[in-house]
Task: inverse folding
């Protein structure tokens, strides 16, 4: 398969749908098996445990709502559930991504080759093993970017009334942005594009990246679908990279 010639998708949602198609391509499926098994085992177990605990956690979280806002409980209760599922989903998705990062990088590399017709510089499993320290450093950079912002959003939850109403909206927007960063980073990192430069480029096309990340966030909250969404997200993000960033960045940036 060579570079696609049709007009570029104008929506990030389209890249998620495209990822569903690309992940099933012959020759690509074998790079999906290992990360898919990791995701099913880790995320499946984590969400099963979460849903056994929600009935304890939600009343504790709702106890911060002042009595004079008790009439809003019918709105705040589902927002509290969504907030917990978003935070929990991103945390365990991040953990799964740490474990599966080398395989996702290889998946992005092989798919890029199919989409462009260009052979990547490094394709062997041995080169992947040699790259592990750099890959883990990159995952650490993403975590360092995420944590202080996540803590700030978490503190908003404890502002009586308005915090419980505002925090889920901010969590969703931030989660969408982080999902875009998380999955677009694999093709960017394969070409050793600096993390800060990647963020600047994604921010320059913020609408389409927030749409892409937002839909991935929603799908991550849906049982069964959340077990298979990660490889789909990697494939969609790789197509996004090829369409919108590869030509201008591949020879212009190094860490």
Result:
């Amino acid at each position: 398969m060579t570079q696609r010639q049709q007009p570029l998708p104008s929506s990030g949602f389209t890249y998620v749908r495209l990822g569903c198609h690309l992940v099933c391509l012959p020759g690509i499926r074998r790079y999906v098996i290992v990360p898919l098994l990791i995701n099913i085992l880790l995320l499946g177990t984590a969400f099963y445990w979460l849903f056994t605990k929600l009935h304890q956690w939600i009343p504790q979280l709702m106890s911060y709502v002042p009595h004079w806002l008790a009439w809003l409980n019918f709105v705040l209760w589902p927002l509290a559930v969504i907030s917990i599922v978003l935070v929990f989903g991103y945390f365990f998705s991040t953990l799964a991504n740490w474990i599966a990062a080398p395989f996702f990088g290889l998946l992005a590399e092989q798919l890029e080759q199919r989409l462009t017709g260009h052979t990547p510089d490094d394709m062997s499993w041995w080169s992947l093993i040699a790259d592990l320290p750099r890959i883990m450093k990159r995952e650490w950079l993403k975590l360092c970017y995420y944590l202080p912002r996540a803590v700030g959003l978490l503190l908003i939850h404890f502002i009586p009334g308005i915090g419980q109403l505002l925090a889920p909206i901010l969590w969703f927007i931030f989660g969408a942005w982080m999902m875009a960063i998380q999955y677009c980073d694999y093709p960017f990192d394969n070409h050793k594009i600096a993390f800060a430069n990647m963020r600047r480029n994604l921010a320059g096309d913020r609408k389409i990246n927030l749409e892409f990340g937002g839909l991935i966030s929603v799908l991550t909250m849906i049982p069964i679908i959340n077990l298979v969404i990660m490889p789909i997200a990697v494939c969609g993000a790789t197509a996004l990279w090829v369409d919108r960033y590869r030509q201008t960045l591949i020879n212009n940036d190094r860490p």
Remarks:
- The mean pLDDT is 80.
- The two ends are 30 Å apart (CA to CA).
- DSSP finds ten helices and no strands in the chain.
- The CA atoms of residues 19 and 235 lie 5 Å apart.
